[in-house]
Amino acid sequence: AAYPALQREAEAKSLRPSEVLDARVEALAAQRGLPHHALLSAGVFVGPDFSGNRSPLADPRMRGSVVGLGPVGPPEEATSIDALAVLYLAAVQALAYSTRAIVEAINAARLQCQGSAVEPIRAVVACGGLARRGLYISEHADALGVPV
């Protein structure tokens, strides 16, 4: 399985597993000649509402999903750190697009309440540990279309 190997690699490099995955995503994109790392997750979809949706739908019955898993080569490749990196990227993208849905709902509610004079959200400020995660921040900036 990939996660024990990921843990060993992270410990050997004195990194967090997410830092190893961030680097692996970039390396895989370069290795495959992709113009942007976001294209690595083509065909893989993560619906992130594993514990229901809190915002903007507030539906506790919603459930998460992972679609597009399957063999892409020899069995050892399907359980590799590279395969885990692609799934990780798809999960980060899912969170970014969930954030986009929240921002769009906020913008729509503000427009409805305040009329056309209201400005849409033009930037998002990240804080805490995730603010140091380059892949997380770049995927959110791309999905939101605003600086993060």
UniProtKB/TrEMBL annotation:
- GO molecular-function term, one example from the UniProt record: D-ribulokinase activity
The protein's matches in InterPro entries, at most eight in alphabetical order, are given as: ATPase_NBD, FGGY_C
Against Gene3D superfamilies, the record matches this protein to:
1.20.58.2240
Q: Give the GO biological process terms.
A: pentose metabolic process
Q: Which GO terms describe its cellular component?
A: cytoplasm
Swiss-Prot/TrEMBL keywords: Kinase, Transferase
Task: Give every Carbohydrate kinase FGGY C-terminal domain span.
Answer: 20-148
Q: Give the source's domain of life in one word.
A: Eukaryota
Q: What is this protein called?
A: Carbohydrate kinase FGGY C-terminal domain-containing protein
* Native source species: Pyrodinium bahamense
